[in-house]
Write a structure and sequence with these properties.
188 residues; Arc Repressor Mutant, subunit A; Tetracycline Repressor, domain 2
Amino acid sequence: MLAAARATFAERGFDGATIRSIAAVAGVDPALVHHYFGTKDALFLAAVEAPVDPEELLPEVLAGGTAELGANVVRLFLRVWDGPTQAAGLAIFRSAVRNEWSARLLREFLVSRVMRRVVATLDVPPAEREARGALVASQLAGLVMARYVLRIEPLATASVDALVAAVGPTLQRYLTGEVALDGAGPGS
């Protein structure tokens, strides 16, 4: 079932995949998928081997309101990456760099399960949300690469507070400031 879920999510994305379509690929009854995984969300997290469930963490990011969103995203991101889930996160990230199928699953996880929820809180036209989310994801992916994979100093050993102060304003601008990216508002 997990192999069928991975293939279906990679091919159709989170929104396009259904429990019924995944069950069909796996050759099982949809009730069996529901029995083992409960919801499509839980199946997706198992399929991508997500080290954390964003649903449990996003309220903390969103609690500070729009004015603190950039800093809150960086703070939570670093807490997750510096914690016990780091090895699993690095395995997923490294796999995505080497394998298009894994990259599609990671993109789907970041877009559908994380960034979509964050940018939905913004008072911007829906057409801008995708671009803003992509900019934030690019910054966070770069931070993973520099801090955890390449271990570039001083990023690799910088404190969380120092990185929140350095990176948070950039994310805040991506989220609430003016951005010039096709489909992202002024200047596009």
